[in-house]
Amino acid sequence: MSSTYTSASNKPDKLLTGFISVRAPELKHIYGSLQGPTSVSEITSKFGRPTSDGIKTEHIEETIRFLNAVDLAESPSGDIRDTVQKINEDHFEGLPFEARLLYHCNQQKGRQQHFTDLHHALMSEERRVVSADRDDVRTILKRETDYDFSWTNEKIDMWVTLCEGLGLISETDDGIVMSPCRALMYCAFSLAPANSDAEVGYDTGSIEDGEFRHILDWIHENLFTVYLKRSGALRVHPAIADVLRNMEDGGVLSLSAPGDAKNEVKLPPPNLGEDRRGNRRSVTHVSIHSCPDETAYQYPLNQFLIHQ
């Protein structure tokens, strides 16, 4: 496994959420199809959309440009419209595409940090379900972020659709559910360093007594928001706590807090009406066991394929 992360060359300036035609299934399939330097015309002919006027390829070209924008691909010829190849493929070798893409989106700087900040802003609501009304979402973003562009419906829709495909969130009639899928959470724990002496690397083997705060800190900074935006003792967001409890109930995680342990993290109770200081569970260590072969531990894209 390579520990070096390389930024792609000749990256587009376009905002990540400006790639409104990009979807998770096509990103995953096209990225997976790249075997060495590949002609873009070969990709567009394979994945293009047949119509009465011929094969439509614009969305495929946008998908390739997005992969370039997040350092997953670049052109060996210097022209992303001509040839493309994977980069950083040895970085976290074996990591599923969904977690890999989120990690890469989180490495982007400047205005491209807006992709990560959107999730952070919605998680500041401290609610499991956030209103899906785009005006309501826009109000949160204007309050929590400061970018010199408009949060249009198209940008928000792109982020919601992509992140739903990756298992970070889901959208229902009730709103945007902020709980990540268990597959993503398991990958996050398997990737994060278990303690200050460990290196980052994807390992699906068991981990005993990992440092809970150290792991969550890394996930919060590199994959997705886990903490509430509050001072004092670190508290896990209710949506994240729900997933951890589900995984613990299923025997996939074990959470503990020895009496003399430091660096504790607080989990809110299931009933948020009882979320007060004395009802929050302290956790300092986590053990990670084997991932079960169950639908609940599959990414949404894999679940869709399984049920075809």
TrEMBL record:
It comes from the Archaea. This is DUF4007 family protein. Residues 257-281 are annotated as: Disordered.
